[in-house]
Write a structure and sequence with these properties.
The complex is a heterotrimer.
Chain A: E1 3-12, E2 22-32, E3 37-41, H1 48-56, E4 63-68, E5 71-72, E6 83-86, H2 98-107, H3 117-130, H4 146-158, E7 164-168, H5 176-193, E8 196-201, H6 204-210, E9 213-218, E10 221-226, H7 228-233, H8 238-243, E11 250-257, E12 260-263, E13 266-270, E14 277-283, E15 288-290, E16 296-306, E17 309-315, E18 324-329, H9 330-333, E19 340-345, E20 350-354, E21 360-361
Parallel strand pairs in A: 3-8, 3-9, 6-7, 7-8
Antiparallel strand pairs in A: 1-2, 1-4, 4-5, 9-10, 11-12, 11-14, 12-13, 14-20, 15-19, 16-17, 16-19, 17-18, 20-21
Helix pairs in contact in A: 2-3, 2-4, 3-4
Chain B: H1 2-44, H2 48-53, H3 67-74, H4 78-109, H5 115-125, H6 130-143, H7 150-154, H8 161-172, H9 176-184, H10 189-200, H11 202-218, H12 221-226, H13 235-245, H14 252-272, H15 274-282
Helix pairs in contact in B: 1-14, 3-14, 4-8, 4-11, 11-15, 13-14
Chain C: H1 2-34, H2 51-58, H3 60-92, H4 98-106, H5 113-124, H6 133-140, H7 153-181, H8 185-193, H9 198-226, H10 230-236, H11 240-243, H12 248-256, H13 264-292
Classes of the chains: A alpha+beta, B mainly alpha, C mainly alpha.
């Protein structure tokens, strides 16, 4: 089922007497193709959870429309939309067993649609098998680990056979190891069921690793939509560039003068199509190449060996961050000595941004 | 070395004395608490003739009898009093539960205009002593011709602001996401209350029920004001009636048998739910 | 809007009950107290003013009730609180038998005041046929026997106070033992390392830590004791004015109902005077506690 957001807006009324109305979601327009896994990504307070609640119907939009396929569901109550929602803290009913939790949504169906007891059991077992918890059906939530509770919550969302599955920060309550495991699991479940799935996260790595498409948001506005790699390689503005990638992109003050990009007094790159003027320069950590003849000269502060790669930490006067982090091949790193490192830059990893609008300036061929 | 041993020994001896004193002290209060219970039990199994013959009361009896219990239930309508109290307690508690669960749910879960103001007014009602409102209630019930009816006994005893408060606090501890999850699945508010909130809050609800049962079982003032027909007496009034007009003559052993019978249900309840009751009382029940 | 309606629906039963049996009576009791010469049968009155208050304040029975109540409150509140503190301290310093003692001490809470009061009466009274249990003990120690139930005033007051203390102890012991248990044991360990003597540990650590609870007990103790009534009935029978041991609440009910009853206006005035006394004492308590209690 494809999901279409059309001018969707949510404005919360002011809190208290002195409060101002808050625009949590500002004229969202996008289309989620059928059967895809979408990550809504942004820092906390950017409106991503509100977007999720708008899609599932827990919040009513202030204006705009929402379509599931061709159907306008803007004014439908949640239970008639055919959505499954998994909460950040899972929201399992503590007094019910795993099986009772999973069948709970089915018991709310109207008499005519409600399956018989046996059918409910069968469907609960099917859902449980899908998330591999069929051995835990008689337990209470308090007797399960965090990862198991997560699976129960997913099974409960899936048992209604929803058209759209929504996950609110699905991994944030899990420890680091489980997080890796669970995100593969979510990917697998989504592939097996083919259900259009939307999940919310503030962790860009999480979003990049499993999404077919990511939506980067900030302050109630969409900044960029696209395939993870495309967004990473070709961000539309400084915020998106900074938000994606670990270690984060390095930023410098720079200036374009007659087709040359200067950082400090060094002309580091040819930028034939960029207009003259001062700019922000973003350089991905993998955009540096050690070169004794290199134009960009940094003061070396440390070298972290991380197996295959080596991270070279240095400083530069024009850098906007405390450190300049570059990642290079461990073999090349052995040549480093002295107080200075010299780099040449890979043009595809160097991004220019306007000083005032922070929008991308495209300069290549 | 030797010195250390000596210090240790004196300290140990001091400790032993300290503990002995404590146990003696605690035992004295224990005896003071238990003695009236022992005495009512003892007197209730002495025969009437044996009891009245004792100019100096005896601490034991060698010929216990259950005749007094038979007398207590046949010569005065103690059974009727029990039944009345049971009816009164069950209906009052059940009505109260319905009222407080609904109100607590509205305060804890629903959003409506003026909620904070209304809740503050509710809380301020907790300070109103019963003595102040009993007068008008007496007049109201009398004018409604509800004296000597169960309705008259029960209706003014139903509400408890404190229990609404207690339950509301408990309801609020249930995470919001459970409510939202239920909404996504199309659960109605009432069904959510019934299927999720009440089961989760069961411990608090049980506590409230026990406290209300104790309160009902022991209530005296209101029933005394509103009933003068023996057919509607509760046990407290029954005991008072037995004391004043008794068994035709002053029959202490039979009176004690009645007292034991009245005391046993609550003591049994207490021994079963000891922890629940003590926890509930320490959370804010004062006697009466 | 729909939400509003639904919420009111849920609140409706509570509003009905509270409105009819609490809010309306609260207003009404003030109205009654100013209606002079109210006739219960015809529900008519012939004037408004402060006469009811003046009548009540000049009624010897009311003055007797005030005296009895104050005397009893002043005796029982400090005694029961102090005794409860001692018992709780003793309880918290032992481990074996602690649960047993706690269970026993709580028993008076779950017993019917009227029923056990009857037992107290039997124990304390002296009849032409028998001296009773307590007098037997007094006799054993060589004292003169006395009828505590129908005898001299001091004897009646003694039994009354004794019974009230017996009845209120469970609640106070329970509150204080849980207050003591909630003091972080770290403080005691620290004191032990410093070799602080027991008494100093008590006055410098324990007492300040549980002082809010002690004041809570004092305040609720005052309020509760001022409202005593059924304890007196249990010991001395329903005709408390004749026995000279009536309480303020007893006076209110006697004015309302029974052989001397039928005067809701006088009852209202007396109830409001009681309420004023309780409020004043509570305010004084709160003021004192602000100055002395460490929160």
């Amino acid at each position: 089922m494809k999901v279409v957001l059309k001018d969707l807006t949510k404005i919360f009324p002011p809190r208290g007497r002195k409060g101002k109305p808050v625009t949590a979601v500002d004229h969202f327009n996008f289309e989620i193709p059928d059967g895809q896994l979408i990550g809504l990504l942004g820092p906390s307070g950017c409106g991503k959870s509100t977007t999720l609640y708008l899609i599932c119907g827990l919040e009513k939009p202030t204006s705009g429309q929402l379509f599931f396929g061709e159907d306008d569901v803007t004014n439908l109550p949640p239970e008639n939309r055919g959505v499954g929602l998994v909460f950040q803290n899972y929201a399992l009913y503590p007094h019910l067993t795993v099986e009772q939790n999973i069948t709970f949504p089915l018991e709310n169906l109207k008499k005519s649609e409600r399956p018989t007891k046996e059918e409910m059991h069968t469907r609960a077992v099917e859902a449980a098998k899908l998330v591999q918890i069929e051995a835990l059906m008689e337990r209470k939530p308090s007797e399960l680990s965090g990862g198991q509770q997560q699976r129960v919550a997913i099974a409960r969302a899936l048992v209604k056979m929803p058209k759209v599955l929504l996950l609110d920060e699905p991994l944030s309550n899990l420890d680091a190891r489980l997080r890796l495991q669970t995100r593969e699991e979510i990917r697998r479940i989504q592939r097996e069921t083919g259900i259009t799935t939307i999940f919310v996260t503030h962790d860009q790595e999480e979003a990049m690793s499993i999404s077919d498409m990511i939506v980067v948001m900030k302050d109630g506005a969409i900044h960029q939509i696209g395939k993870p790699q495309a967004v990473y390689d070709d961000p539309t503005n400084l915020f998106v560039a900074k938000f994606l990638g670990t270690p984060p992109i390095n930023t410098f003050e720079g200036e374009v003068r007659s087709g040359q990009l200067y950082i400090g007094e060094a002309a580091v790159l040819e930028t034939p199509r960029a207009p003259d003027g001062r700019v922000y320069v973003g350089i991905r950590p993998e955009g540096f190449r050690l070169d004794p003849e290199g134009k960009l000269v940094c003061h070396l502060t440390g070298v972290d060996v991380m197996g295959r790669d080596t991270s070279v930490v240095s400083t530069h006067e024009a850098s906007l961050d405390v450190n300049v982090r570059s990642i290079i091949d461990s073999e090349d790193a052995q040549t480093i000595s002295g107080k200075e490192v010299r780099f040449t830059l890979r043009p595809s990893k160097v991004l220019l941004f306007d000083r005032t609008t922070e929008e991308r300036i495209r300069y290549g061929k | 070395m030797e010195d250390n041993k000596l210090v240790y020994k004196t300290a140990a001896r001091k400790n032993r004395i300290f503990h002995t004193v404590i146990y003696v002290f605690l035992s004295i209060w224990g005896i003071l608490v238990l003695f009236p219970f022992y005495w009512m039990l003892l007197s209730s199994v002495k025969s009437y003739s044996a009891y009245t013959a004792e100019r100096v009361p005896a601490f034991y009896t060698l010929s216990p009898t259950l005749q007094n219990y038979v007398d207590a239930f046949t010569q005065v309508p103690l059974g009727k009093y029990f039944l009345n109290t049971l009816i009164f307690t069950v209906i009052t508690t059940a009505l109260m539960l319905v009222v407080i669960v609904l109100a607590a749910f509205a305060f804890a879960r629903l959003e409506f205009r003026g909620k904070n103001l209304i809740f503050t007014l509710f809380l301020s009602l907790m300070m109103i002593p019963n003595e102040l409102v009993v007068i008008t209630n007496f007049v109201t019930i009398t004018n409604l011709n509800m004296r000597n009816t169960f309705a008259g006994l029960i209706l003014p005893s139903v509400t408890s602001v404190f229990y609404i408060y207690l339950l509301k606090e408990n309801f609020e501890q249930i995470p919001d996401s459970l409510y939202l999850a239920a909404k996504v699945d199309g659960t109605s508010d009432f069904k959510y209350l019934w299927k999720v909130m009440i089961p989760i809050s069961k411990p608090t609800i049980v506590t409230v029920v026990i406290l209300k049962v104790i309160e009902c079982w022991n209530s005296y003032v209101w029933p005394r004001l509103i009933t003068d027909d023996k057919n509607y007496f509760l046990v407290s009034n029954g005991i008072q009636e037995i004391r004043e007009n008794g068994f035709g003559r002053e029959n202490i052993p039979a009176m004690m048998a009645a007292v034991v019978s009245v005391s046993i249900p609550l003591i049994v309840l207490f021994l079963i739910f000891r922890n629940k009751i003590m926890e509930g009382v320490s959370r804010g029940g004062t006697k009466g | 809007m729909e939400n509003n309606r639904k919420a009111w629906l849920y609140l409706l039963p509570a509003f009905l009950f509270l409105g009819v049996f609490m809010v309306y009576p609260l207003v009404d009791v003030f109205v009654y107290s100013f209606e002079e010469g109210y006739n219960f049968a015809s529900e008519s009155f012939f004037g408004t003013g402060g006469y009811n208050y003046s009548y009540v304040l000049h009624d010897p029975y009311f003055l007797q009730a005030i005296k009895n109540t104050f005397l009893m409150v002043v005796i029982t509140v400090p005694l029961s609180t102090g005794l409860a503190l001692l018992i709780s301290l003793a309880l918290s310093s032992i481990t074996p038998l602690r649960n047993l003692f706690q269970t026993i001490y709580f028993l008076p809470y779950v017993t019917n005041t009227l029923a056990v009061g009857l037992v107290f009466m039997i124990l304390f009274r002296k009849t032409p046929y028998s001296d009773g249990m307590v007098n037997r003990l007094i006799h054993l120690f060589g004292g003169p026997t006395v009828d505590f139930i129908e005898g001299p005033y001091w004897a009646k007051m003694f039994v009354f106070c004794f019974y009230i203390i017996w009845v209120v102890m469970p609640f106070k012991i329970l509150i204080l033992t849980s207050a003591l248990a909630s003091v972080n044991p770290m403080y005691y360990k620290a004191a032990k390392i410093d070799g602080t003597p027991r008494w100093r540990v008590f006055t410098r650590i324990t007492l300040p830590m549980i002082s809010p609870m002690i004041f809570y007990l004092v305040i609720t103790g005052f309020i509760g004791a001022f409202k005593s009534y059924s304890d007196a009935v249990a010991l001395f029978g329903t005709n408390l004015n004749a026995a000279g041991i009536n309480t303020i609440v007893g006076y209110v009910y006697d004015m309302l109902y029974g052989d001397s009853g039928g005067y809701p206006s006088y009852a209202s005035a007396a109830a409001i005077i009681l309420f004023a006394i309780v409020m004043t004492i509570t305010c004084i308590n709160l003021m004192v506690s602000r100055k002395t209690v460490h929160y």
